[in-house]
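Team,

Forwarding the record for the chain on the shared tracking sheet. I've put the sequence and predicted structure together so nobody has to dig through attachments.
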Amino acid sequence: MTKLTLASYPHMLGFEQLERVLERTAKAGNEGYPPFNIEQTSDYSYRITLAVAGFAEQDLSITVEDRQLVIRGRQSDRPDDRIFLHRGIAARQFQRSFVLADGVEVGEALMENGLLHVDLTRAKPEKVVQTIKIRKGE
């Protein structure tokens, strides 16, 4: 059986990068922690909100790596003398990845009431019409 790719369609020229992005997204393997929302805040802006209760600002990092927004959380190991009778709140680390389209830029990040908000903006697309001159062959 032949694997269908975007290159299999003759009218889809130059979409190889999109295919690689889709494959990378499928391999990201994001587990369900922490839960998150993605909302559209205007025609050209978005907000990703992660539930990061128990994490301080210094426990979190936000980076953009090869058009991929990566949010990591790692709580510092605090050696203390506490004795837990029940430990239902685990101090676990996480990594969440979001693939960004060309033209999407990461704005500010805000920590509020155990929620991390990351704002994104997308450049307004310009309509481009290009006329190609046909020259006579010899």
